[in-house]
Amino acid sequence: MFTHEKPAYSVALYPLLPAAWEAFSASLSDAEQRWAKLHDFKANAGQLCLIPDDQGGIGKALVGYSADAGVRWALAALPNKLPGGHYHLVCAWSAEERLQASIGWGLGYYRFEYYTKPDNKARPVLLVENQQARAKAFVQAVALVRDLVNQPANHMMPEQLSAAAAQLARTFGASFSEIVGEDLLKQHYPAIHAVGRTSAHVPRLLTLQWGKPEHPAVTLVGKGVCFDTGGLDIKPSQYMRLMKKDMGGAAHVLGLARLIMQLQLPVQLRVLIPAVDNAIGGDAFRPGDILATRAGKSVEVDNTDAEGRLVLCDALADAVSHKPDVLLDFATLTGAARVALGTEIPVFFSNNPALTAKLQVASAEAEELIWNLPLHRPYFEQLKSGCADFTNSGGSYGGAITAALFLNEFVPESTPWAHFDVMAWNTRERAGRPVGGEAMGLFAVYHYLETVYRGD
């Protein structure tokens, strides 16, 4: 993937924008210009031109990229296009741009090959002289998210998600604990238990902790619904097909936790994951049931397919009791968020204007779009119940907002909180981003955390 030292033979790699092609081509020899023209190379996004040297090898590699896509993805297609060998960048990019491009290069290596024969063909290697460890940290964090989401449900039930969190804790010297099955009732996490109780894969609450107690407290909560049938309000088959990804929120917080620990961000980190299988069975929770929650609020079940917010509310109630400096949750929570902004743009809500502003700045600076939607409180009317404090599902409109408003009931205004509603899945293939599980918002959120807590 990367090398620190330039070997004796390394191919010069020139990333080019279309607007720069005419001036750059004038620097090429007549033969090189004819070769580029023969291959109709104009530095359009995704174009690659390998110019031979006089020994029959590759003398130069020219790659076109789009300013709209950003430098991070400029080289991301190349691990699948270039022949094996060593390459080094020749361009005027800044150190930060080179870092981002190397991250994209690394993500271009990603394959989910747990159940297939690995592709052992020779891959190109990029010279990264500075910040290689940082580039690898981002690549490994995103790969962790992708791997967890891509796992089929029969290999990623609550017990396997627990094992993945425990392994991550061991890797970085963090502590790990879990509350399992009936102990959820004994320790007062009734909503998590209710959603997962009918499955053979018993529900649990996973907790990972890392960092020094004197550092600012950052708490991450991730929805860990390892498969979502919809419960007794069963999903149609076309909507159930990808529900292995319903633990995508848990995958996101584990990927973000890995990045925080690997890059030694000076925070006191706490990660909470309610891990359940929303199955159908004789003891499944039902529409019309009234559930207790850890916060003492009663919830009438309007729809068993709105289960994610039920498991999250107990975890959020636990999280706020520790009074974190910031609380962030990630969840594959609503289809409404995807209707609003499509599958590739994470939606976020916040109860804190200063936190909202900082996340928006981080989104711009990290060149990863996340979009704020309002916690429009008048919509809470849709969650009214005649026999409980509120219901778990509202009307047909504004579903992402009503879901966020439900969660907001479990977070006091004194706790700065942001809720991310993510797809966690690429529905189309792009350079460095294959179809399948995906980390969404990770670059922006980590940039926010690093800016606030490291100050650089």
From TrEMBL:
Taking every annotated instance into account, which residue ranges of this chain make up the domain Cytosol aminopeptidase?
303-310
On the tree of life, the source organism's domain of life is Bacteria
Gene3D superfamilies to which the protein is assigned, alphabetical: Leucine Aminopeptidase, subunit E, domain 1, Zn peptidases
- What are the entry keywords? Aminopeptidase, Hydrolase, Manganese, Protease
One Pfam family name is Peptidase_M17
Q: Alphabetically, which GO biological process terms does the record hold?
A: proteolysis
Q: Name one GO molecular function term.
A: manganese ion binding
Q: Which GO terms describe its cellular component?
A: cytoplasm
Sequence similarity? Belongs to the peptidase M17 family.
Q: What is this protein called?
A: Leucyl aminopeptidase
Task: List the source organism.
Answer: Thiothrix lacustris
